[in-house]
Amino acid sequence: MEFITFLLAPIGYAGLTFTAVMAARGRLPRRFWRAVVLVIVTHVTLVWTVRYEWQLSEATRNGYVGFLVFHGALAAILSSLISGDRVARVLIIGAFAVVTVGAIAATFRYDVVGMYRIPVLVCAIAGAAGLTGAYRSRAALAA
Questions:
Q1: Given this model, what pLDDT does residue 143 score?
Q2: Count of domains observed in the chain
Q3: Residues 6+ apart with CB under 8 A from 81
Q4: What does the H/E/C string look like for the chain?
Q5: Which of the two residues, 64 and 62, has the higher pLDDT score?
Q6: Rounded-to-integer distance, Cα 48 and Cα 24, Å
Q7: Using CB atoms within 10 A as the burial measure, which of 11, 13, 94, 135 is most buried?
Q8: Range of the domain at 61
């Protein structure tokens, strides 16, 4: 079950990456995003069930900062589902930034997710390039 739990993480992250880039381009693929959020929520639920056994002390055993950062990103992701497009785009792009920092750090720190280091780095680089390109093209259109 742990394999499935952590396999869902890079799948959700890839979906978050794609959605963040699309959001930066001014488009929000709502149906796709709902499916991605389902993957993300399933992953988080499995982490709480399989890894933490629903114990807050287990969830915070490595400190409160990571716990708050990831759950703050989760709150932004969930909030984006009920927000208008403009706010949802900001929430999704912000969540991507937060999750990227946390995911990269986690793959270098924890053996259980170390095997996902390359996919996470690929998504992070692709997402950063996509966001940069989207903002450059939007800036060029505004000029």
A1: 64
A2: 1
A3: 33, 34, 37, 88
A4: CHHHHHHHHHHHHHHHHHHHHHHHCCCCCHHHHHHHHHHHHHHHHHHHHHHCCCCHHHHCCCCHHHHHHHHHHHHHHHHHCCCCHHHHHHHHHHHHHHHHHHHHHHHHHCHHHHHHHHHHHHHHHHHHHHHHHHHHHHHHHHC
A5: 64
A6: 31
A7: 13
A8: 2-142
Rounded Cα gap, residues 134 and 4, in angstroms: 33
Q: How far apart are CA 57 and CA 81, in angstroms?
A: 29
Quick one: pLDDT band at residue 2, thresholds 50, 70, 90?
confident
What is the number of residues in the chain? 143
Instruction: Note the pLDDT tens digit of each residue in 21-34.
Output: 999 999 999 999 99
Is 92 within 8 Å of 33 (Cβ atoms)? yes
> In angstroms, rounded to a whole number, what is the distance separating the alpha carbons of residues 53 and 66?
18
pLDDT of residue 62: 84
Print the SS3 string covering 59-75: HCCCCHHHHHHHHHHHH
| Residue with tokens 């930066």, as numbered in its chain | 24
Residue whose entry in the numeric block shows the structure tokens 């996470």: 120
